[in-house]
Amino acid sequence: MKKIAVLGYGVVGSGTVEVFYKNKEALEKKVGEELDIKYILEVRDCPDERYRDKFTKNFDDILGDPEVTVVAEVIGGIKYSYGYVKSALEAGKSVVTSNKELVASKGAELLKIAKEHNVNFFFEASVGGGIPIIRPLNQCLSANEIDEIAGILNGTTNFILTKMIKEGMGFDEALRIAQELGYAERDPSADVEGHDTCRKICILASLAFGRHVYPDNIHTEGITKITLEDVKYCESMNSVIKLIGFASKRGNDVAVMTCPAVINEESQLSGVNDVFNAILVRGDAVGDVVFYGKGAGKLPTASAVVSDIIVAAKSHGTSRSMNWEDSAQDFVIPYKKLDNKFYIRAKADRKTVEGIFGEVRFLSRDGAPDDECAFVTPVINEAELEGKCASLDVLGLIRVLDY
Amino acid sequence: MKKIAVLGYGVVGSGTVEVFYKNKEALEKKVGEELDIKYILEVRDCPDERYRDKFTKNFDDILGDPEVTVVAEVIGGIKYSYGYVKSALEAGKSVVTSNKELVASKGAELLKIAKEHNVNFFFEASVGGGIPIIRPLNQCLSANEIDEIAGILNGTTNFILTKMIKEGMGFDEALRIAQELGYAERDPSADVEGHDTCRKICILASLAFGRHVYPDNIHTEGITKITLEDVKYCESMNSVIKLIGFASKRGNDVAVMTCPAVINEESQLSGVNDVFNAILVRGDAVGDVVFYGKGAGKLPTASAVVSDIIVAAKSHGTSRSMNWEDSAQDFVIPYKKLDNKFYIRAKADRKTVEGIFGEVRFLSRDGAPDDECAFVTPVINEAELEGKCASLDVLGLIRVLDY
Asked: Which member of A16, B135, B291, B331 has the greatest number of CB atoms within 10 A?
């Protein structure tokens, strides 16, 4: 009999308990022994009568109980979770988590502690909700040198952009609907400013390249400046705007960024709509593979947490976690050294634009004012672009990515 | 140091050796010790000078060498591979294979032998080439009860259908081009008659439902009867024709079939073109997830074989294989008991059709002869449909599936 503790009884925590008890019999068959949730750590007074005997407000009950071999951390944030996870690993318990903030900022350290104590630290649910991506990347694609990862990693912003692209809705209205539907929080900044995507691409990049990529080192832009005018111009070149997190191997270094990007309709990422996520992985042997599904939500995320619990329970006593080393900041190329094509919308005439950028591809849209000009630049260095744009009244600027 | 033997030096075998040596250093880092290929079993005289010292024609060299802990079987077929794999497992060596025929017909037995000898039998490469699907299904989605799996599992037929749909090319011409490009064999029957897809859906169904689904029990139809007329009619209802393998849980039993299917353009499977494969998995917690990539080819398949080698090498001495039990034939519902909607093209008038089927959805296409009638039936039992069609001059009949 393996005993489990669940830390947190919010959306993901209650989903985890629900999925666990719904499929308990099948899960036990997979592990080959009985399983049960012994504790649920929750500060509120017994939020669910069914599990009255399992609730505790005291983490030490769990930490001190040698019967508990697997701990599922689904509190979120860093404040409490970091200490809890660290102590649990040090006490010889395997930990699974859905906490992308924790993994993105402390992954290397926690993986090291797990290894030292011969236990596991799994975090399939931290990226892509229920979509299998962490373990496939770590195991099924392990024969490959990973050249590129690019993903639509945030359902909220993808929902908003889909509304803008498919229904011609403005950003503010689309955000309001996302909030009404519970897809966006009252303070939506973590989503719309790109921070959530940034954490997730950092986790994927760390895993793919074997060295920790920290969110603080990553250039991150959100979607708040995207307008319907930009959407229309992109449509005219059979492209859509998506919020992309990408990580790209460049020799011994890596380019990692979170930004809105113009993506051609031919791309497997262009047709990913609403709250769905998709992650494209480009390996030297396998070519492109894409993983698609619901990137968030109670049950999809719980699916990944419970699956990790199963693997952790089955493999307790062996350290099977993935590994990445800690890293120096200079591992990530400063974004201003990167080259890209850019979509630019500006108050300017074509002659001025050509005077600055040379030959560009001009775009058009219905109802454009006479003094507006939209175009795609040749490949150009980011810092150089900044200089060129200084003399231009730029209304919109989005990278054109080739995924 | 872990020593590996590769059985077979054809397309996949030479790809396996190539990927292994290309990324050897990184692979060794992942396993945590040195790795090498000690033997390559091949009946031809040294087909590759670079590996002159590794070639052998005698399997007993490998079987009797206690240094070899992982055997990669990439010969294909059953004739030799079955005996080799069985003996290797019994000798305490882990085996990885790309051989779908072997896994589909002998999977339950070989998994049992692997378990009894505390070794592993992995077969990620047997379905979807380099696309991670076996391990994600077995591990990352293990919290779920799997309700449905549906996939485009054969690149050759998908290439042919894409040519028909996108370029209006006839079946014979599309097949000829597929053969010229090396996508189809000179005898293309295993692909175009659906047997390859059948084996793959049997493997996925066995894994998802925990009991062996044998190819002999599965209704299998290929794409040789699909015409451009059918393609056009389906286009008129925003749908495409794809060769689908599906497995669907129905209470304690399962429905499994390989057949061409009419798929709506809204489906994630409809946009999968050319030689690409995609597999949709529907779980009770995660909802729909889709895995997409190259389903065949030297390096993609080698990617999966080498990744399995890595996991096998890393976990040697523990049995971590998936599991499915052997099963009685009555586990799979006879296909004539199933219900479906059907697309039918017939020499008939609308009145006759309505007399037989009641209310149907009529379809149209440019240039249809007056005596041709195409329509979609209501949901109807397969056996009942057969009866109804007996009095009709049926020119085309395809299931309409909702994935």
From this structure: A16
pLDDT confidence tier of residue A330, bands split at 50, 70 and 90? confident
What distances in angstroms separate CA B53 from CA A20, B38, B56, B66, one per listed residue?
Answer: 53, 9, 9, 18
Report phi then psi at B278, rounded to 5. -150, 145
Phi-psi region of A180 (alpha: psi -120 to 50; beta: other; left: phi over 0): alpha
Mean pLDDT, chain B, as a whole number?
Answer: 95
Work out whether the CA dihedral B138, B143, B145, B146 comes out positive or negative: negative
Strand ranges for A184-252 from DSSP E:
219-220, 239-250
pLDDT number for residue A325: 83
CB A49 within 8 A of CB A292: no
Query: Any CB–CB contact under 8 A between A26 and chain B?
Result: yes
DSSP per-residue string spanning B232-262: HHHHTTTEEEEEEEEEEEETTEEEEEEEEEE
User: CA nearest B304 in A: which residue?
Assistant: A140
Phi-psi region of A76 (alpha: psi -120 to 50; beta: other; left: phi over 0): left
Look up residue B220 and give its two tokens.
Answer: 């299998």
Give the pairing of strands B253-264 and B219-220. Answer: parallel
Which structural domains are found in chain A, ordered by start? 2-129+298-327 (3.40.50.720), 134-295 (3.30.360.10), 338-400 (3.30.70.260)
Q: What is the sign, positive or negative, of the torsion defined by CA atoms of A348, A350, A352, A354? A: positive
Position with higher pLDDT, B330 vs A118: A118
What ipTM is given for this predicted complex?
0.91
B23, A284: Cβ pair inside 8 Å? yes
8 A C-beta contact, residue B216 and residue B331: no
CB nearest to B302's CB, from A285, A294, A303: A285
Task: Please give the structure tokens belonging to residue A54.
Answer: 């399992």
Nearest to A290 among B124, B293, B303 (CB): B293
Residues 277-316 of chain A whose Cβ lies under 8 A from any Cβ of chain B: 283-294, 297, 299-300, 302-307, 309-311, 315
Token pair in block for residue B269: 């499977």
Q: Supply B284's token pair.
A: 């009770």
For chain A, the farthest-separated pair of C-alpha atoms sits apart, in whole angstroms, at 75
Show the tokens assigned to B202: 């049997």
| Calculated CA dihedral for residues A179, A182, A188, A194, nearest 10 degrees | -120
Beta-strand pair A239-250/A253-264 = antiparallel
